[in-house]
Amino acid sequence: MLATIIQRAVMQGTPLLFGSTGEILTEKSGHLNLGIPGIMYVGAISGVAGAFLYEQSVASPDLLNPFLAVLIPLLCALVGATFMGLIYCFLTVSLRANQNVTGLALTTFGIGVGNFFGGSLIKLVDSDVPSIALSKTSNFFKTQLPFASNLGWFGEIFLSYGFLVYVAIIVAIISSYILNKTRMGLHLRAVGESPETADAAGINVTKYKYISTCIGSAIAGLGGLYYVMDYANGVWSNNGFGDRGWLSIALVIFSVWRPSLSILGSILFGFLYVIPTYIPDISVSAKKLFEMLPYVVTIIVLIITSMRNKKENQPPQALGLPYFREER
Amino acid sequence: MKKLKNLYWSVLSGSAAHIIKRDDIVWWKAWGIRIISVLLALIVCGFVTVSLTDLNPIEMYITMAQGAMGTPRLVWNLFQNTAILLGVALAVTPAFKMKFWNIGAEGQILIGGLATATCMIFLGEKIPAPLLIPVMLVVSIISGALWAFVPAYFKTRFNSNETLFTLMMNYVAIQIVAYFTLEWSMPKGSGTPRTLEFGQLPVLFGQKYLINILIVVVLTVLVYIYLKYSKQGYEISVVGESEKTARYIGINVKKVVLRTMAISGALCGIVGFLLVAGTDHSLKSDTAGGRGFTAIMVSWLAKFNPIFMVLTSLLIVFLESGASKISEVYRLNSSFSDIITGIIIFFIIGCEFFINYKIKFNKKEEIVC
Questions:
Q1: Which of A25, A131, A270, B59 could make an S-S bridge to A12, C-beta 3.0–4.6 Å?
Q2: pLDDT, tens only, B73-99
Q3: Which pLDDT belongs to residue A79?
Q4: What is the architecture, at CATH level 2, of domain A2-144+152-327?
Q5: Nearest Cα residue in chain A from B173
Q6: Is B369 touching A (CB cutoff 8 A)?
């Protein structure tokens, strides 16, 4: 029972972990990317489109090449999400547009793209299938280690997931390492804290902002891909992704801008998400109040960190501000 | 290859060309740039539509216009949606002008709507409509203001990040409203929101939405006067331009921030009231329908000027209803309108750069790679 709850919490948490790792990298460069929900939708739908076209191009579903069936959606998701990141960078870094407005527009656009192609893909390619159900591709994404089911609760908690869950954790650990232990990470943090100083020290501010935002978007896009391919069994449903994008941004605050903490945070958020299903006799309406908890917890963390005012727990100093070298 | 890479980063980081802030741009130049960017956006949207449907671009815009205002009923809907969006945009503007990033309008609207619905349900049968409606209005104003006051308080007291705080408050509000929608649904637990019979706004001259539109028109004028001619409006602009200057000339910045956010939330509360009592006559968690976010773009595009906001909100609502007509005719998904809106906003946001800055290309020998 407990093992099942943990397992489901991890599965719920994984999209959030991808999203928040991506958003942390972006925010560390001083850019508050509110387009993350849209980017995750685009990542998901790009993966779905890639997988759908590949499944359609093969005569029978049994002929799918497992390697290609995973690689194509993966690359599509990365490309789609990076493209969204580029739009955001071009507008906010090069054209110095307001970050909040650009991010919200990106979210509108991205959710629109996701739902539009999700709803119209079949019509657009003149296919005769009734709905997008990529169960074959999904099975490849969900493949677990062959001996996982023989190991009882240990297997269930640690080994029972598709490979993207492990990717999410590894990416978070690597990001944490890069941010805290490498020169590159130091430069990136400098850009986010004080771009003037970084610029004066000879760091290419624009380059860091572009690269970290685009990589961040690509990582967030994988969250969308994981959701649709693994969690939702390859079935696209419009708005099915829900508010997970915003929850990822909440998770960034909750984990005080540390990818390593956000691994635990994502499991906790996932836990809060699934816990109502395990409470007997709970009414549908009370479930809604449970769904509020991650946000309330985040607000409390936000208040506490600002009250304690410790330097290492604060948002990057230049978060949300555009940088003009000419205006120093 | 290396050379190309160097050139690429030098363009991006500004050593091949550099940017100069324009002192002041003549108004016709600024509007020229804006109009060009809208035209470019429309061309891009045309390409997108043509590649997805077999319409030619001109037919497409005719279909859009028909979808947005083909019949009197559609025109009323257009005005109604514009009025509501404009109302939210007016609400976020005072805070934005102060550089307080209130992206919690969605939640503030919902809480205002929730307050209205509570009055309609629990006081509806007890007091007559002429008394009930003012009570509803006052209660929704107060609750919207309180909901906005919370993040403002923590901002002024502990310097919490207001963007993130207000963003989170939205989802708290959405879940609270979702809870009450289910609790109040008829029959209970079914999820169909209850129709609120008592306290609906009166129908003027046979037009259901006329009263909403009139209220928003009044609000527009009031907000315009408040921001432009009142002392408080002046304080808001000073705090927005430079907090240090504001403190230097003796403005109590904390007081201004708290007061302005309360006003912002109160206006959102009024919109919630209009949506529940004047439009839907019910409360759902998507009553605000993302307008809290769209309004930010409306306000920004209009440079925080309430009069221009009439135009920008009309533009956005027109595009949305027009694009949904196209998706209806071609049996495409209704989210098509979001894509079109997104593209147009990208262009308008981008063009501001060319209004505020001049690009000067350096002579070739000056490039330092």
A1: A270
A2: 788 888 888 888 998 998 888 888 888
A3: 93
A4: Orthogonal Bundle (1.10)
A5: A292
A6: no
